Amino acid sequence: MSGVRVLVGTRKGAFVLSADGTRKSWTVEGPHFPGWEIYHVKGSPADPDRIYCSQSSGWFGQQIQCSKDGGKSWAPVGNQFAYDGDAGTHQWYDGTPHPWEFKRVWHLEPSLTDADVVYAGAEDAALFRTADGGQTWTELAGLRGHGSGPRWQPGAGGMCLHTILLDPSDPNRIFIAISAAGAFRTDDGGKTWRAINRGLRSQYIPDPEAEVGHCVHRIAMHPSRPNVLFMQKHWDVMRSDDAGDTWREVSGNLPTDFGFVIDVHAHEPETIYVVPIKSDAEHYPLEGKLRVYRSRSGGEEWEPLTNGLPQANCYVNVLRDAMAVDALDDCGVYFGTTGGQVYVSSDAGDSWSPIVRDLPAVLSVEVQTLS
Amino acid sequence: MIRVILPSHLRMHADINGEVTLPVAGVVTQRSLLDALEAQYPVLRGTVRDYATQRRRPFLRFFACQRDLSLEAPDKPLPEAVARGEQPFLIVAAIAGG
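Output (structure tokens, whole complex):
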């Protein structure tokens, strides 16, 4: 029978939540790596038993863990992330040059076809790649060599490379996003990159339409249409129909277009989800009501989804990597909150229930659909 | 043999129970001790010293013989009692919070 495995990264450890295809009864395993910050846990599409985990700590630095048995056991792999050559400088918060310094890995994106190949998005922003299951990591330095690197500046959460999208139709095409530099694309496997921020408008930077400097929070893609991208920017929900060459706003009737997560229905490429957050000054839902918004038209027209979600006195946040969808026939949607809840909808968002309520603050949620 | 006590997170990470005992060749210094520790437990590389700079991570401290040795030069000999294995070398995770 089919089932799902939900991989949850939290401020104080990793958790694995498992259920059969009905998604009604759940087994909770964890915490793995108790006390450590787990920024991201993600399984390999090529081998679902292979799972990679980014484990970090202000005391002990960065670790990468790997499981080869679906999360039952783990082993540390390589944790050396060295910038290629002279790392140079980027802009600090006050506009002065600041040396590039590795801090942590925010996101791990396993290859679609090879379980030993994984991409890692780092803070300070850089993209690394392993081809030996995480034992060694090499920077794809063409990204920082794009030329705009000295002008990149950290967002409030740090200068993190948080989104990595692999194009299923073209192994040489990768999309990434950095806070607060913007979105970039390579068409040659990471050797060269171009900024893809035309159409973004950010009032909080000196030139609102600058080539770089936009605080992109998350990008999502449906695998059947890799040229169509959806973006939750700091403010604004955006859409591109030409692989990021141009963007247009599709915030439409959202009550606020600030937020972090965005994702796409597994079977309906025009159905997308966001969780509106009040503002960049108040990181919680409007009016204390936790609402997922769904658009079935690829943006512009949005409907609130509230059934099963708290509609009073709710002041949690939903962070950028904390939403995912499964690929079962009735698409499941999942998200985690800074209050430690992980919610599931097994009917594409019409109704919700908590899988767990009291985990540490959730940093990331990924789902594996198991056959 | 040199005795080393690690913070609990690193003991769990390296699957260590209790104290570590290490052979250290030559003069026992912070550097030679940590080199020997990392040679015996490669998963500890990068956890006590930063990979790039090889400097002590800022929230860790080194104690021995009731002294804070954190700011000592990495090549300065450690106290004789540590070198003889009579006293442990403590790697301590600084307390944070309030």
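The mean pLDDT of chain A is 96.
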